[in-house]
């Protein structure tokens, strides 16, 4: 029983930030009356139960924040009620459980803790001790409520983010289809020459682009582009470049010009690079730039004119299997206006090949921690069967690249290549 001298506790002395609803379970009517009176004076909402089973039924209606339960009760004792109460609460609710008992043995206390009790109050008890134990429980219940509210906010945020990410995934999937449409075919035959393409984005969408086109009359143009960065912005840049170099709409392709209203011809590579550079440097707010290798081949005589605007040095593979790196380096497109791009020429003989490749090859990290670079490209090429088709050669190059990569890094950049074969 609570002594009268200590029964009065100021309501302001007990925080109810966590505990608002209290369940008192005791088969002693007098004990319940004393506890209920004190709790109500402290500002709590109180529910009474005479047995453990009755208490559990009331918990099913509304779960309390605090339970004061006698250990010894008919039908269902305090330990059984505590276990059932914990099962009823699950992970969504936390109620502080205090067992009222006259037991003091360590074994009995251990049984109570194993059943899920948080604290014990020995009979007889006084108001100050009860208030102190409720304060301890209040802090825990308040913390759990706060965590539950924060978890609810986090869960709502995660649900919202998932919805946003799902929408982004759908957009990226559609963007990938659009980007794939920029390279409708991996190979193209142009009479005396053939172009084969390889495009392997390191993500869902990439910043590399390869392409080919021909106005006929024995002229062929092919290119490789690598936009700075990765992701959506780079992919949008490649879409713009692909639109300027359309293989199916020559009137929209800035590399082609109509002659005498009868046919299309290919403009010199340097002029094409300058036009692309002017268009992209005029766009304010666009910080991305791109490297490019672009060549025009006159298949009547094997003369190739090309530009290398910051792209890795092209490889010319001769019919006897020897090869050389060609080009003049150059400045990437979109960095600064009014740039002149110097052309270089290569005379091709029947059986010769020209390979454009992105820095996804040359700057890939090998098992020894070094980049592949030109020497590594030469080693990869030496492993390929150069008598195979262009697509097979490109696929072999990509496969051999994967075999020598640092496994912890892998492919960390878009990989692309364009291979021109001159049959003469």
Give structural notes.
With 424 residues, the chain is α+β, with helices and mostly antiparallel strands. It folds into two domains: 4-150, 3-Layer(aba) Sandwich (Rossmann fold); 182-422, 4-Layer Sandwich (Phosphatase 2c, domain 1). It has ten helices and 18 strands. The strands form four sheets. It has a six-stranded antiparallel beta sheet with strand order 6-7-18-17-14-15. Strands 2-1-3-4-5 form a five-stranded parallel beta sheet, sandwiched between helices. A five-stranded antiparallel beta sheet has the order 8-9-12-13-16. Strand 3, helix 3 (78-89) and strand 4 (96-101) form a beta-alpha-beta unit. Helix 2 packs parallel to helix 3 and helix 5 (127-181) packs parallel to helix 6. The longest helix has 55 residues, at 127-181. It is rod-shaped, with a radius of gyration of 39 Å. 35% of the residues are buried. This is Chemotaxis protein CheY. InterPro entries: Bact_Sigma-Reg, CheY-like_superfamily, PPM-type-like_dom_sf, PPM-type_phosphatase-like_dom, Sig_transdc_resp-reg_receiver. Residues 21-138 form the Response regulatory domain. It comes from Pseudaestuariivita atlantica. The modification 4-aspartylphosphate is found at residue 70.
């Amino acid at each position: 029983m609570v002594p009268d001298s200590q029964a009065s506790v100021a309501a302001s002395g007990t925080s109810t930030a966590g505990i608002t609803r209290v369940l008192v379970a005791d088969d002693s009517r007098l004990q319940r009356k004393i506890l209920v009176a004190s709790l109500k004076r402290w500002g709590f909402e109180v529910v009474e139960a005479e047995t453990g089973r009755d208490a559990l039924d009331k918990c099913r209606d509304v779960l309390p924040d605090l339970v004061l339960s006698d250990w010894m009760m008919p039908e269902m004792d305090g330990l059984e009620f505590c276990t059932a109460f914990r099962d009823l609460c699950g992970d969504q609710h936390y109620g502080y459980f205090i067992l009222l008992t006259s037991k003091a043995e360590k074994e009995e206390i251990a049984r109570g803790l194993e059943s899920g009790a948080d604290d014990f109050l020995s009979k007889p008890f006084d108001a100050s001790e009860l208030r102190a134990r409720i304060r301890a429980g209040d802090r825990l219940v308040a913390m759990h409520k706060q965590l539950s509210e924060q978890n609810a906010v986090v869960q709502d945020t995660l649900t919202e983010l998932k919805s946003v990410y799902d929408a982004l995934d759908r957009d990226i999937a559609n963007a990938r289809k659009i980007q794939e449409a920029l390279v409708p075919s991996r190979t193209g035959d142009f009479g005396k020459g053939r172009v084969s393409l390889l495009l392997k984005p390191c993500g869902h969408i990439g910043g590399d682009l390869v392409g080919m086109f021909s106005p006929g009359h024995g002229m062929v143009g092919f290119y490789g582009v690598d936009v700075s960065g990765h992701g959506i912005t780079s992919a949008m840049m490649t879409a713009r470049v692909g639109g300027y170099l359309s293989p199916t709409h020559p009137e929209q392709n800035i590399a082609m010009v109509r002659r005498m209203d009868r046919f299309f011809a290919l403009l010199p590579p340097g002029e094409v690079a300058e036009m692309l550079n002017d268009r992209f440097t005029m766009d304010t707010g666009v910080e991305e730039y791109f490297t490019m290798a672009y060549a025009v081949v006159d298949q009547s005589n094997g003369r190739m004119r090309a530009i290398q605007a910051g792209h890795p040095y092209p490889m010319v593979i001769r019919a006897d299997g020897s090869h050389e790196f060609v080009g003049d380096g150059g400045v990437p497109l979109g960095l600064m206006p009014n740039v002149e791009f110097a052309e270089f020429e290569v005379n091709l003989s029947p059986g010769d090949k020209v390979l454009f490749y992105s820095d996804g090859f040359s700057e890939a990290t090998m098992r020894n921690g070094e980049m592949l670079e030109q020497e590594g490209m030469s080693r990869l090429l030496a492993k390929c069967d150069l008598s195979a088709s262009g697509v097979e050669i490109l696929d072999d190059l990509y496969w051999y690249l994967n075999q020598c990569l640092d496994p912890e890094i892998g492919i960390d950049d878009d990989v692309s290549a364009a291979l021109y074969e001159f049959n003469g």
